[in-house]
């Protein structure tokens, strides 16, 4: 009964969604205030029904209702309750329902927090969001319902959630990512609404910004957690593979970063308007493209969902309508948008323009690298593969001018700058960075390659330059303490974002350059050495978890004869489905991770073990979290929180 | 005017991409084209599967057009295609089997149980049909690696001079034969 | 002190190479070459994995072959060419440079150049000193009237 109610609830949501799409947009077109005012309540109603639907699916999972085919394929009674809930988004249909929940959720929040917008704009934004909702709901109801039943012959036990997904990472990674992807649809809707209204001004940018930053914050966090999870889970110590599915999340992130910066320029200076709009359209387009790539079966990836061409076709059609429509509207209307504003070459405007060029080029590299193998093959030219070597090389090259620019950018004022004032800051910053990096690297490591030195220096440079700027801007006020209090939240967002990236760059560089691995076979009592640590294999004990059994290799880690950790590297076999999984043992630290994975049992009581020493690997995720905080910090900005006085805006079109 | 033109560019690029995405929906991303097409069968010297003291080399294979079919008793799809392959044999097509040993690892397993394997093979071929003139045993999968084989079933079409004309991954059925093999076989006849 | 300890540990790990390590090499360069190769070569049968990470039979065979070639003294390029001969370009994660793949490198550079060019040209235009004529005055009034009309509609 409940699953059917879930489906029915979704149908009701769909009806509201259709109305949400039609009424406000028609109302805005004809100036009918009543129609426009229907939008917020429709949005909230839509969310309520989608939420009910989602709750129905969770209920089916929690009660082990294996008559529902989705629950039978992705859950089992042996799962702990929190993984049963997680299994709701463990498969394709449920994940789409999660997406829908986010879509409806963002729409409702926009409806509730857009009271200060003129009705024409507000109605249009909600209308476009409604249209997006309609698309996804049609897809779910017609092609991809998680509520299908397996009657009359249903299994007594489910197939279990893929063991790789039975991890805390699965609980937070998809929801965070989807919050990001879907959140970018808000920026998209604002852009379309602005194009429809013909008003692309500073205020549009101002309204768009908090939504974009929040969505971007979620996306950053989602990607960061994904990388950390892959590292902790997969047993090989890898944290990014340039897999098409990973790329599908990186592309919207890169464009959204460009969008953020562009929005700030448009808001403050009224320039770059047409580019900002294009970026807003592109960001969500890439989210949708990513969804298509991952669910259509056109690429091969461990992450990809199982699919069939029908579903792929629907998503492609939806993609074509949404993105094609958006770009067509852009093509038609953007020539009406004029950016006024003059600025010299050495100005913050130009620096941010260049920043956007680099980010767009980075996105292009990822897009080309992900899609070219498919295009190449379809053109009959044969099969090629594009992976790590290509992407790493290109990004390494791109990083150099980008990082240099990132350090200089904040020093620049809007419109024009006197070189003399800049010179000192840049020179001192560069010198200090080089000195610090050289001292650090050459004292810690035997071999320092030019590339490692350059990349680490760039990370340090961004860090130093940010603090020079911070100091300069705070010191202007006389006392530092007062100055720091006076710095706006926007500024702190920049500091967090840039410092975060500095950590990411340094972390990736150092861990790539100095990670070491040993692949050994050991008998109980054996010891091996890796860098300054000794690893003593104590033996293997059998383990038993909630829904798995297996072995745990026990290893004592010593440094100069003092025990610093005892690690348990597991090899699990899940009861249902009999799948094997390695659960690596990690001794995490700020300056290094010690990573241990158990291999196979060999002859004569020996076991194979992989031991890794990974310096500074945590820095990239610490950096990622800092960057995502930059997105969320903006929510505390008073500018966006002031509630407008009701009487002022009643009836304002 | 210039601006208007430029504003259409993103849309055009998008449409261009969509065309390929559409095509991609109907292609098989897992089918790859390997390296040996157009080259001759690499040098090898491997034992016959069923007979002791009989060995095969690449030179001996020259002289006829044949299909080299990579298979194993552990492979369910191979079992499925035996019927059709046998029909092809009856039509006069020469098929040589390359037996791909899936799980034997010289470092870990004991000495190889040849008799058990031969019994397995005889049983399966007796039940499902025997399309093979003979079978070559690739115990260490060395010829397979030299040919660019990654599993079973895979089939190569080789001409009289030992040149590899086609490398097909997956089973052979009437549809595949018509689409991929028949055209090439036609060219080889006269 | 730290540097000394690290150098010392490097010696120790090299010496300990002998008994317990699964892969034995004649030199550190070989070990590094093997690691790089197994990360750059793709498993022909898997769902996007390199041969280092994959458990598939063919991945293991390729690893063993790469090991043999590396210990035989082959360079990284020679091993990659060896594999491409057999498995095609698909097996290498770095694409070949052909007319078809040239776009991978050309397009990004092009966009950077166009982007730079755009802003430079815009600067040139903006810095051209502007004169104001009567015709401009007429145009200005016309635009003001137009704008007023648009705002009222």
UniProtKB/TrEMBL annotation, chain C:
<keyword id="KW-0408">Iron</keyword>
<dbReference type="InterPro" id="IPR038297">
    <property type="entry name" value="CcmH/CycL/NrfF/Ccl2_sf"/>
</dbReference>
<dbReference type="Pfam" id="PF03918">
    <property type="entry name" value="CcmH"/>
</dbReference>
<keyword id="KW-0349">Heme</keyword>
<feature type="transmembrane region" description="Helical">
    <location>
        <begin position="102"/>
        <end position="121"/>
    </location>
</feature>
<keyword id="KW-0812">Transmembrane</keyword>
<keyword id="KW-0732">Signal</keyword>
<keyword id="KW-1133">Transmembrane helix</keyword>
<comment type="function">
    <text>Possible subunit of a heme lyase.</text>
</comment>
<keyword id="KW-0479">Metal-binding</keyword>
<keyword id="KW-0201">Cytochrome c-type biogenesis</keyword>
<keyword id="KW-0472">Membrane</keyword>
<dbReference type="InterPro" id="IPR005616">
    <property type="entry name" value="CcmH/CycL/Ccl2/NrfF_N"/>
</dbReference>
<comment type="similarity">
    <text>Belongs to the CcmH/CycL/Ccl2/NrfF family.</text>
</comment>
<feature type="domain" description="CcmH/CycL/Ccl2/NrfF N-terminal">
    <location>
        <begin position="7"/>
        <end position="143"/>
    </location>
</feature>
<dbReference type="InterPro" id="IPR051263">
    <property type="entry name" value="C-type_cytochrome_biogenesis"/>
</dbReference>
<feature type="signal peptide">
    <location>
        <begin position="1"/>
        <end position="18"/>
    </location>
</feature>
<protein>
    <recommendedName>
        <fullName>Cytochrome c-type biogenesis protein</fullName>
    </recommendedName>
</protein>
């Amino acid at each position: 009964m409940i699953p059917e109610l879930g489906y029915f609830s979704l149908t009701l949501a769909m009806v509201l969604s259709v109305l949400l799409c039609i009424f406000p947009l028609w109302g805005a077109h004809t100036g009918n205030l009543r129609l426009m005012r229907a939008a917020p309540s429709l949005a909230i109603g839509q969310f309520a029904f989608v939420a009910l639907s989602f709750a129905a699916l969770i209920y089916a999972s929690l009660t082990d209702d294996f008559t529902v085919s989705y629950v039978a394929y992705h859950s089992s009674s042996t799962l702990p309750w929190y993984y049963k809930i997680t299994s709701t988004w463990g498969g394709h249909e449920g994940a789409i329902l999660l997406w829908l929940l986010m879509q409806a959720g963002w729409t409702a929040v926009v409806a509730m927090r857009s009271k200060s917008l003129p009705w024409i704009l507000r109605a249009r934004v909600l209308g476009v969001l409604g249209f997006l909702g309609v698309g996804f709901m049609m897809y779910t109801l017609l092609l991809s319902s998680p509520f299908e039943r397996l009657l009359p012959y249903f299994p007594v036990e489910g197939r279990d959630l893929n063991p790789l997904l039975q991890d805390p990472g699965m609980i937070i990674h998809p929801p965070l990512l989807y919050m990001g992807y879907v959140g970018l649809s808000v920026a998209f809707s604002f852009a379309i609404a602005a194009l429809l209204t013909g008003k692309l001004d500073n205020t549009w940018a101002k309204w768009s910004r908090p939504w974009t930053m929040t969505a971007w914050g979620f996306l950053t966090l989602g990607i960061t957690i994904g990388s950390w999870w892959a590292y902790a889970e997969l047993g090989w110590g890898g944290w990014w593979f340039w897999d098409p599915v990973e790329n599908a999340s990186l592309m919207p992130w890169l464009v959204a970063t460009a969008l953020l910066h562009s929005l700030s320029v448009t808001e403050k200076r009224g320039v770059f308007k047409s580019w900002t709009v294009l970026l807003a359209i592109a960001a969500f387009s890439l989210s949708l493209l990513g969804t298509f790539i991952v669910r259509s079966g056109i690429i091969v990836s461990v992450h990809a969902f199982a699919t069939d061409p029908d579903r792929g076709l629907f998503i492609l059609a939806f993609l074509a309508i949404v993105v094609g429509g958006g770009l067509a509207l852009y093509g038609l209307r953007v020539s009406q948008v004029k950016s006024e504003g003059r600025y010299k070459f050495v100005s913050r405007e130009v620096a941010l323009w260049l920043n956007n060029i680099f980010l767009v080029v980075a996105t292009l590299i990822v897009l080309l690298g992900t899609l070219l193998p498919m295009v190449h093959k379809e053109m009959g030219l044969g099969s090629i593969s594009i992976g790590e070597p290509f992407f790493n090389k290109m990004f390494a090259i791109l990083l150099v001018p980008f990082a240099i620019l990132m350090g200089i950018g904040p020093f620049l004022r809007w419109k024009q700058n006197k070189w003399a004032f800049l010179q000192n800051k840049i020179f001192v910053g560069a010198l200090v960075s080089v000195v610090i990096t050289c001292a650090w690297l050459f004292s810690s490591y035997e071999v320092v390659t030019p590339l490692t030195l350059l990349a680490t220096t760039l990370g340090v440079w961004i860090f130093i330059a940010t603090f020079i700027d911070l100091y300069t801007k705070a010191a202007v006020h006389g006392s530092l303490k007062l100055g720091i209090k006076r710095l706006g939240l926007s500024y702190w967002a920049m500091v967090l974002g840039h410092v975060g990236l500095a950590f990411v760059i340094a972390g990736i560089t150092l861990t790539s350059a100095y990670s070491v691995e040993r692949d050994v076979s050991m008998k109980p009592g054996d010891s091996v050495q890796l860098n300054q640590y000794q690893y003593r294999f104590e033996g293997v004990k059998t383990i038993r978890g909630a829904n798995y059994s297996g072995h745990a290799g026990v290893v004592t880690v010593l440094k100069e004869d003092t025990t610093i950790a005892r690690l348990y590297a597991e090899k699990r076999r899940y009861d249902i489905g009999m799948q094997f999984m390695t659960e690596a043992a990690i001794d995490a630290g700020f300056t290094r991770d010690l990573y241990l994975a158990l291999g196979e049992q060999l002859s004569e009581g020996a076991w194979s073990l992989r031991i890794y020493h990974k310096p500074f690997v945590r820095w990239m995720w610490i950096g990622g979290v800092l960057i995502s905080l930059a997105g969320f910090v903006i929510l505390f900005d008073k500018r966006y929180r002031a509630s407008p006085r009701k009487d002022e805006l009643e009836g304002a079109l | 005017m210039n601006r208007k033109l430029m504003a259409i560019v993103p849309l055009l690029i998008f449409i261009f991409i969509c065309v390929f995405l559409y095509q991609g929906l109907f292609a098989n991303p897992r089918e790859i084209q390997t390296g040996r097409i157009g080259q001759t069968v690499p040098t090898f010297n491997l034992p016959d599967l069923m007979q002791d003291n009989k060995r095969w080399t690449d030179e001996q294979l020259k002289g006829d057009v044949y299909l080299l079919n990579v298979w194993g008793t552990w492979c369910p799809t191979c079992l499925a295609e035996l019927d059709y392959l046998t029909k092809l044999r009856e039509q006069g097509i020469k098929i040589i089997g390359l037996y791909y040993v899936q799980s034997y690892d010289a470092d870990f397993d004991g000495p190889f149980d040849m008799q058990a394997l031969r019994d397995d093979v005889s049983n399966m071929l007796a039940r499902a049909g025997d399309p093979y003139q003979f079978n070559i045993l690739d115990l260490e999968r060395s010829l397979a690696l030299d040919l660019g084989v990654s599993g079973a079933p895979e089939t190569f079409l080789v001409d009289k001079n030992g040149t590899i004309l086609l490398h097909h991954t997956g089973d052979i059925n009437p549809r595949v034969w018509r689409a991929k093999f028949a055209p090439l076989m036609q060219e080889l006849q006269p | 002190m730290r540097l000394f300890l690290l150098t010392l540990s490097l010696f120790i790990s090299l010496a300990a190479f002998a008994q317990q390590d699964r892969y034995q090499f004649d030199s550190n360069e070989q070990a590094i070459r093997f690691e790089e190769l197994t990360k750059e070569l793709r498993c022909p049968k898997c769902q996007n994995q390199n041969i280092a990470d994959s458990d598939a039979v063919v991945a293991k065979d390729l690893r063993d072959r790469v090991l043999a070639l590396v210990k035989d003294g082959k360079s990284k390029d020679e091993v990659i060419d060896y594999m491409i001969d057999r498995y095609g370009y698909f097996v290498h994660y770095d694409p070949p440079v052909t007319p078809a793949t040239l776009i991978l490198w050309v397009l990004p550079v092009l966009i950077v150049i166009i982007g730079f060019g755009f802003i430079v040209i815009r600067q040139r235009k903006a810095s051209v000193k502007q004169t104001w004529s009567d015709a401009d005055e007429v145009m200005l009034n016309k635009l003001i009237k137009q704008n007023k009309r648009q705002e009222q509609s």
